[in-house]
Design goal:
Helix content: 40-55%
Distance between the termini: 70 Å
Structural class: alpha/beta
Number of domains: 1
CATH superfamily: Spore Coat Polysaccharide Biosynthesis Protein SpsA, Chain A
Oligomer: single chain
C-alpha cells in the first residue's frame, strides 16, 4: 500500500483521509469541537450496524496509539473478513489521546461499518478504557486486546473455542510452559512480570498464572457483571478482575497465545511494576468489597423477583 494521502469529494468536515497505514492526519477544528462537546457514551462514532446480530465484540483501549494501532486494525479487518461469524464489531476506546488516534479511527469508521470509536475526555487509565468498551459491547463474546497487536488477532479463535466448550472467561497466557517458544519478550520485563505474578498469587491467591496478558475474552453476561464490579482504572484492573471472577466461581481457562513485544509500550518497567506491587496491598480489600456488592445486588434482585411474583399471585 502507498502512503499517499487522498481527499474525498464528499467531505463537509474537511478531513484528510489516508489509507489504513497512512501516518498523516489533518482533522478539522469543526469536527474536534463537535467531538469534545459530547460525553464519552454519546461520542460513539461508526454505529451503522446497531440493529444487526453481533457474535463477537473486540474492544481495543488506545492512548496515543497513532503509530501502533493502524497495522493492528489492518490485521483485524483481514481476520474478521475471513470468518463466517453472524456479525462482529470493533470498538476502539480512545482514552484521552493527544495525538491523531481518534481522528484516524473516526475517519476509518466512515468506510468500515463494524468499527466504532468511543472517546474519553481525559486519560483515565487502561482499566477505565476497557470497562467503557465492554459495557458498550453487544457481542455474545467480548474480547479485549491491546492496541499494539502483541498477540495476533487470529488467536481469538482459541479463546472463543474455550468459551464455546464451557468456559466463562478465556485468558490468553504467556506463561504456560509449552507455550514459551511462542513468546518474544525483553528479558528484564519477563523477570519483572514473573516477580509480579509471584507476589500476586501470594496476595490474592489467584490460580491464573498470567493475569496481565492483554488478550482476554468473556461471555457477554459475565463480562458485563465483572466490569460493573471492578472499578480499577489502572494496570491492576486485570488482577482485580481475575480475583473477583475466581471469588464468584466463574470458570476461567488459560489459553496459550503467541506474544511479541512491540516497541512503544506505555508501560514503564520499574515505575509501573513497583506501583502495581504497592497497589497489591489494597487489593484484597478492593476484591472483598466487589464481591460484597455483588452479593447485595443479587439479594436485591432476588427480593424484587419474589415481590413481583407475589404481586402477580395476589
Amino acid at each position: 500500500m502507498s502512503d499517499e494521502i487522498h481527499r474525498t469529494d464528499h467531505n463537509p468536515l474537511g478531513i484528510v483521509k489516508s489509507n489504513l497505514f497512512g501516518s498523516q492526519y489533518d482533522s478539522s477544528a469543526l469536527k474536534d469541537q463537535y467531538l469534545s462537546s459530547r460525553s464519552a457514551e454519546e461520542r460513539r462514532i461508526g454505529v451503522e450496524v446497531q440493529n444487526s446480530i453481533v457474535e463477537l465484540s473486540l474492544i481495543i483501549p488506545a492512548f496515543n496509539e497513532s503509530s501502533r494501532l493502524p497495522p493492528f486494525l489492518q490485521s483485524v479487518l483481514d481476520h474478521m473478513s475471513s470468518l463466517s461469524l453472524e456479525g462482529f464489531e470493533v470498538i476502539v476506546v480512545d482514552d484521552g489521546s493527544t495525538d491523531s488516534t481518534a481522528n484516524y479511527v473516526s475517519t476509518l469508521a466512515e468506510t468500515w461499518p463494524q468499527l466504532s470509536l468511543i472517546r474519553h475526555d481525559r486519560n483515565q487509565g487502561k482499566g477505565a478504557a476497557v470497562r467503557t468498551g465492554v459495557l458498550a459491547a453487544r457481542g455474545r463474546f467480548i474480547l479485549f486486546a491491546d492496541a499494539d497487536g502483541a498477540t495476533p488477532i487470529e488467536d481469538e479463535m482459541k479463546l472463543r473455542k474455550a468459551i464455546e466448550t464451557g468456559a466463562d472467561i478465556a485468558v490468553g497466557s504467556r506463561l504456560i510452559a509449552d507455550n514459551l517458544h511462542a513468546i518474544r519478550r525483553n528479558r528484564l520485563r519477563s523477570i519483572g512480570g514473573r516477580l509480579y505474578a509471584f507476589l500476586l498469587h501470594r496476595f490474592l491467591r489467584v490460580s491464573v498464572q498470567d493475569t496481565q496478558c492483554g488478550f482476554k475474552m468473556f461471555r457477554k453476561d459475565v463480562g458485563e457483571r465483572l466490569f460493573r464490579l471492578c472499578d480499577t482504572d489502572g494496570f491492576l484492573f486485570d488482577a482485580h478482575l481475575i480475583a473477583i471472577a475466581e471469588a464468584l466461581q466463574f470458570r476461567i481457562v488459560e489459553v496459550p497465545v503467541r506474544w511479541t513485544e512491540i516497541p512503544g509500550s506505555k508501560f514503564r518497567l520499574f515505575r509501573d511494576t513497583w506501583r502495581m506491587i504497592a497497589g497489591l496491598f489494597a487489593s484484597r480489600t478492593i476484591v472483598k468489597r466487589a464481591v460484597e456488592i455483588d452479593r447485595l445486588d443479587s439479594h436485591s434482585s432476588e427480593s424484587y423477583h419474589r415481590r413481583s411474583v407475589d404481586d402477580r399471585k395476589s
